[in-house]
């Protein structure tokens, strides 16, 4: 990037967004865009993807088009950008005909630097004719994984994005952004969006401020009650698989006096929008929801995400869990695992409208999530490796890394399991294998003659569910694999053969795991932080904006530590640009001064 363009980008970052330096990967992507290169950026939630297209858009002549499937994200980002002084708008189905006509006139008149649109809008001939009149140097595609059938959230409307290259003249720079993408998905993005020799930037998938926990065998409602009540001041999201479970969890929390809301597709659009707004404005502390909630919810101060049930794949889990700690402050991500939840996900796959090839992909993705629930390795490391990044150290914070149970040698048990799978010709699943090892008097066991096997009853001293659990752990640790089908079959890997031959030992932890109930570390003066939060809410209510679009929690925390006494000192705090200071800064300075004076008097 030429020095002049680089300096302009850094000036925009400081004056508009209030940050002194770019985060990892941001400057490289922005440099590529300003240098005229197509780009593919894979950055985890909270890593600052939006800055990568918002800064170039502010630096370029003309209007930048941002394609996003997320109506709620459009409104949030438009509000936030207008707060920074960058004129921005959106076009989507929430607008009336009159509003739509007015937006079209304003866009044609060059009023805006960025325009957010849903991919379906690109199929509108009227909109396409508008694009032909505009100077559009840059098109940013958010949630770009939606273009791939291998992705976890394929949307056919994304296939129409590439037609922009045939409409806009001269050809715009295209940049694709996503938080999660396997190698197959990345290749699909490049092909379907017709990216030209793109700059590829992957900043890594690890979220250093998040702690991951998998809890098995807990009473879910009791755990939920204890956890949420202990964090009454924190915002959190609880995800459940079905509408019924959302309703039950929400009603349970409300009875406990928790300010909880609900969100699922069975509610009216008005109620969903209302509950979402209350959550964004911190009027509701907890949102209980299906996966219909959260895509594009740019709420920065979510401190925890609890999954009441297992998700359908690792991509969905990491995106949903990643809604904690978007402000860079600590967050906790907790999965409450129960085997019956896997059956619910299989039912949802089987009842879906996808063809058989897509269902096969979905079953394979579900197996990856089951492995996550049973792995003994670092949970963050498992996720990073799932997305193809072999590098990375153990996080030291997750339920695997902090597991202080005693380690036992289970090589003999593993050998019995592997031998049984081999003698059953690697043609059966976990449940049947466990029944044979348990020595069950089962009709199907007798039907196949498995009671004659030497391994029949070889583990009769254990309960069937304990054998099933051990098999799942061995699958998660790579000794066996499951086929991608509705009724997955166990197969042995080379690692299992090494154990059978006595070349490798297998170890497992054997005492109950501690619950994830550590408090999230907080920094700064709590009394001042609460005063600043209340002041922020006053402005948010006045301007009808979510509080975090004024200042993030992380910015308030830094104010509590730095305790600025002048405009110059306040502008050094991350997240405070000149435009925001002029609008809100002085009352916050006054609040800090008054608090400091009161503390001295006390």
Automatic annotation (TrEMBL):
GO molecular-function terms, A-Z: helicase activity
InterPro entries in alphabetical order: DEAD/DEAH_box_helicase_dom, DNA_helicase_ATP-dep_RecQ, DNA_helicase_ATP-dep_RecQ_bac, Helicase_ATP-bd, Helicase_C-like, HRDC-like_sf, HRDC_dom, HRDC_dom_sf
Segments forming domain Helicase ATP-binding: 30-199
Record Gene3D superfamilies: HRDC domain, P-loop containing nucleotide triphosphate hydrolases, Winged helix-like DNA-binding domain superfamily/Winged helix DNA-binding domain
Keywords, comma-separated and alphabetical: ATP-binding, DNA damage, DNA recombination, DNA repair, DNA-binding, Helicase, Hydrolase, Isomerase, Metal-binding, Nucleotide-binding, Zinc
Top-rank taxon, per record: Bacteria
Catalytic activity: Couples ATP hydrolysis with the unwinding of duplex DNA by translocating in the 3'-5' direction
Helicase C-terminal domain boundaries: 220-367
Cofactor(s) the protein requires to work: Mg(2+); Zn(2+)
Family of this protein: Belongs to the helicase family. RecQ subfamily.
Stated name of the protein: DNA helicase RecQ
Gene name linked to the record: recQ
